UniProtKB/TrEMBL annotation:
<feature type="domain" description="Resolvase/invertase-type recombinase catalytic">
    <location>
        <begin position="58"/>
        <end position="200"/>
    </location>
</feature>
<dbReference type="GO" id="GO:0000150">
    <property type="term" value="F:DNA strand exchange activity"/>
</dbReference>
<dbReference type="Pfam" id="PF00376">
    <property type="entry name" value="MerR"/>
</dbReference>
<dbReference type="InterPro" id="IPR041718">
    <property type="entry name" value="IS607_transposase-like"/>
</dbReference>
<dbReference type="GO" id="GO:0015074">
    <property type="term" value="P:DNA integration"/>
</dbReference>
<dbReference type="InterPro" id="IPR006118">
    <property type="entry name" value="Recombinase_CS"/>
</dbReference>
<dbReference type="InterPro" id="IPR009061">
    <property type="entry name" value="DNA-bd_dom_put_sf"/>
</dbReference>
<dbReference type="InterPro" id="IPR010093">
    <property type="entry name" value="SinI_DNA-bd"/>
</dbReference>
<dbReference type="GO" id="GO:0003677">
    <property type="term" value="F:DNA binding"/>
</dbReference>
<dbReference type="GO" id="GO:0006355">
    <property type="term" value="P:regulation of DNA-templated transcription"/>
</dbReference>
<keyword id="KW-0233">DNA recombination</keyword>
<feature type="active site" description="O-(5'-phospho-DNA)-serine intermediate">
    <location>
        <position position="66"/>
    </location>
</feature>
<feature type="domain" description="HTH merR-type">
    <location>
        <begin position="3"/>
        <end position="46"/>
    </location>
</feature>
<keyword id="KW-0238">DNA-binding</keyword>
<dbReference type="InterPro" id="IPR048046">
    <property type="entry name" value="Transpos_IS607"/>
</dbReference>
<dbReference type="InterPro" id="IPR036162">
    <property type="entry name" value="Resolvase-like_N_sf"/>
</dbReference>
<dbReference type="InterPro" id="IPR000551">
    <property type="entry name" value="MerR-type_HTH_dom"/>
</dbReference>
Length: 201
């Protein structure tokens, strides 16, 4: 039986060595150990693991709105993406997200990136391209390509005019910078009050 080192096993599966260590900690793929404590993976176990992982890959439907008052829009997105996945016979689940297209720390987006990194997804389905990201879409697209993940966009025609998109983008930028500015001022005010309190007590 042929055995591979962790470096060779990572190359065989197309993942990082850190991913193999994480899978070992999660009891997903446990290697054997040499007398010196080095990891060794049998090629047969790697092939079986790869086949099982490929067969279990999901389609992720990603639906996002910018604010909580857009619940009806979110429902429509979920319905459209669900119908599309069913019509194509995909095994899927939906990730619903809330936040600006400029916010890269959204809970749903972080979950999606983790799934992509773990190579548990075959494709991502979105209603419109900008539902994934308003800016930086090309970066996410490249990440997906590197992990053999397809992006399927249901509606390629824009649901907004260029002028409406531009207004949304400008408002999003203003909102982000305003939040940072007032957040910074708030922190400075708290620091000043804390210092004054220490001086006079």
């Amino acid at each position: 039986m042929l055995y591979l080192s962790i470096k060779e096993a990572a190359a065989f599966l197309g993942v990082a060595e850190s991913t193999l260590r994480r899978w070992e900690n999660e009891d997903k793929l446990t290697p054997e150990r040499t007398s010196g404590g080095h990891r060794r993976y049998s090629k047969d176990s790697l092939i079986a693991f790869k086949d099982k992982k490929d067969n279990n890959k999901l389609t992720i439907g990603y639906c996002r709105v910018s604010s909580s008052d857009q619940k009806e829009d979110l429902k429509r997105q979920v319905e459209n993406v669900t119908n599309y996945c069913i019509a194509n016979g995909y095994q899927f689940r939906i990730i619903e997200d809330l936040g600006s297209g400029l916010n890269y720390k959204k809970k749903g987006l972080k979950e999606l990136l983790a799934i992509i990194e773990n190579r548990d997804v075959e494709r991502i389905v979105v209603n419109y391209k900008d539902r994934l990201m308003r800016f930086g879409y090309e970066v996410l697209e490249e990440i997906c390509k590197l992990n053999n993940v397809d992006i399927e966009i249901i509606n390629h025609s824009e649901d907004k005019t260029y002028e409406e998109e531009l207004v949304d983008d400008v408002l999003s930028v203003i909102t982000v910078f305003s939040s940072r500015l007032y957040g910074s001022r708030s922190r400075k005010t708290k620091e000043i009050l804390k210092t004054n309190k220490q001086m006079f007590t």
